[in-house]
Amino acid sequence: MSYTQELLLKADEVIPRVTLADFRNDLNAKIMIDVRQIEELQASGSVKGSINIPKGVIEFRLNNNDEVSFETSIYVYCAVGVRSAIAGYNLKKIGYKNIFNLGGFQDILDQGAEKQL
What we know:
4-stranded parallel sheet, Oxidized Rhodanese, domain 1, 6 strands, 6 helices
């Protein structure tokens, strides 16, 4: 088993996979983060209302953002759900408590999310 596969298994154990309805029904302070690279967003767009913080820098950007507390609900997604699971796992390891994986971009659109270019 590769390192990435092992990490994904660990991430899937602690980061719940949720739906867009779960995001919408969450009454806690929350944000939705697209962890894909900028080139992917330029090619396909993103979910309206989400912010882009690529997986490789998400821990640093959030840790230096006073508006996002360790109690904020953080919903992450990527192209198919692998990078978002791993990004969520890394955020959990540094102390964020409410991390959720929305899975893949197309999955979220299929659930009724609005796309922005």
